[in-house]
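Before a colleague's protein record goes any further, I have to sign it off. Would you go through it and say whether the fold makes sense for this chain? Take the sequence as given and treat only the C-alpha cells as open to question. The record follows directly below this note.
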Amino acid sequence: MRRTALLTALSALSAALLTLAACAPSTPAPPTADEPVPPTTDQPDPPAADPPATPAPISGFAEAKRAWEANGPASYAYTLTMSCLCIHRGSYAVEVRDGSLASVRDAASGQPSPESRMEWIVTVDRLLEVMEMASQLGTPVRATFDPGLGYPIEAEIGVLADDSGTLYRIENLRPL
C-alpha cells in the first residue's frame, strides 16, 4: 500500500516536471565543434522598450481645436456621416444653434431623426471633446481637420477595421 502511494506521488511529480519543462523557454544548444562560436560582448542586452507613458497626441489636434475655438461659428449646419457596426450609422443633416443641437434629420429623406439616435449625434465641440478623451484613454484616434476653421473633416475613434470604432465625416459645414 505504501509502495502504491509512493508510485502515485512519483508519477504526479514526473508529470509536473514534464509540464514545467514543456513550458520553460528553450535555451540554445551550445555550439558543436563544427560551428563557430559567436563573439560575446561585455554590454548587457538593452532593456525592453516600455509602452509610452502617455498616449500619442492626435496629429494637428491642438492647432485645429484652437482654430475652431477662435473662428468656428456658434450656429452652423453640416452633414454628418457616421460609419460603424452600430444602429446609429448613417448620414444626418445637423443644425447647431448657439452650440447646441437644434435639428437632426435623415440626410436622404429629410425626416426627423428618431429620438433614440439623438444621443449619438455630435456637435463639432462635442466631437472634439470625445476625440480628446478617447486619446487620453489610449484609444486610437485618427483625424484630418479643415485647414481654415479647424473642425474635423474626418475622425476615426477606435479602429473601424476591427469593428471597434466609429468614423465621423463632416461635410458642407456652413454658418447659420
